[in-house]
Amino acid sequence: MKAFSITLQAAALAAACLAGAPAMAQHAGAEHAQHGAAAASAETTEGEVKKVDKASGKLTIKHGELKNLGMGAMTMVFRAKDTAMLDQVKAGDKIRFTAENVNGALTVTTLEVVQ
Ligand SMILES: [Cu+2]
């Protein structure tokens, strides 16, 4: 009976590890994208600027799907890679941008206002 319950625990542990695997794979992918060669392959995504916070170097974007981050459409805060980006946009602007996971911070790495 004791051996049986230990086997169950081992199985539960294995299941937990498997459940964690896709998230780890995603992180590896995002980190890989930071290496120069793969960075260019990050697709641009359409978004709408909701808020620009120059003091904290962040901007809120209502964005479409971000395949490279495994993210669906949502409104969220991103860090700006370059604070100069924050001078290029204002709330209400339609943009095309690329976002990457830079050291754990979701960061807008390129940004272009759509006319
Ligand atoms: Cu998002």
From TrEMBL:
Compositional bias segments (type: Low complexity): 35-44
Leader peptide range in chain numbering: 1-25
Entry keywords, A to Z: Signal
Full protein name: RND transporter
Pfam annotation, one family: CusF_Ec
Start and end residues of each stretch annotated as Disordered: 28-53
Coiled coil stretches, renumbered: none
